[in-house]
Amino acid sequence: MRAAIVNETDYTWTFEFDTREHQRGDLAIMRHERWSLWRKLAGGAVGACALMMLVMAVVNPTMRATALLIAVMSAFWVSIFLLRGVLSAYQFKKLNPPGHREIMIGLNVDGFRTATFVGRVNINWPAIKRVVETPAFFLFYVTGTAAYYLPKRVIPANQLPGVRELVRERVAPPHVTLTDRT
């Protein structure tokens, strides 16, 4: 891990990819993502239908095979959702061969930037929809459900207040959730 300050408002951190940390980051992103109303309604409707089918299977034994199929399908989709971090970590390792798994993340007055072996991404502050600070990460959301994570472990303690200040200056107040603790 290396940390460098170019000036007071330009931070750059470089660190090695860690599979477990990536999975924890992905879980943090999922915990704080915002689902649109139609997704919530669709999910609720599917859940209600599945529950109704299971109740009908208890009442009517001839429907048990259908209820079992619905239960297996539901478990499959839930597991895919929960394994999202594992799958994306696998994809990162596949695209970035051993020896080339270093990640660079930077923040400055222009925005958020990241780079790996396969490419670079620059995101201007107006494109960042929301920033959430958790005990382990800063999460930079570019949509309601897609975000980049910055592990707080790579940020020296003396830089945390400056990072928080930069985020507060550049992202509208209702879209910033910072903890102000180290």
Number of strands: 9
Unreliable stretches covering 5 or more consecutive residues = none
The end-to-end distance, rounded to whole angstroms, is: 18 Å
Rg calc: 21 Å
Largest sheet: 5 strands, antiparallel
Order of helices and strands: EEHHHHEEEEEEHE
Report the mean per-residue pLDDT as an integer: 83
- Widest beta sheet: strand line-up: 1-2-3-4-5
Principal-axis shape: elongated
Helix content: 40-55%
Number of helices: 5
Strand content: 25-35%
By helix and strand content, what is the structural category?
alpha+beta
Describe this structure in words.
The protein is of the alpha+beta class and 182 residues long. It contains 5 helices and 9 strands; from the N terminus they run ββααααββββββαβ. The protein has helices at 19-32, 37-59, 64-82, 84-95, 160-170; strands spanning 2-7, 10-16, 102-107, 111-116, 119-124, 130-133, 137-141, 147-151, 176-177. The chain has a 5-stranded antiparallel sheet with strand order 1-2-3-4-5. The chain has a 4-stranded mixed sheet with strand order 8-7-6-9, covered by helices on one side. A hairpin with a 2-residue loop joins strand 4 and strand 5 (119-124). Helix 1 (19-32) crosses helix 4 (84-95) and helix 2 packs antiparallel against helix 3. The longest helix is centred in the N-terminal third of the chain and has 23 residues, at 37-59. It starts with a strand and ends in a 5-residue tail after the last strand.
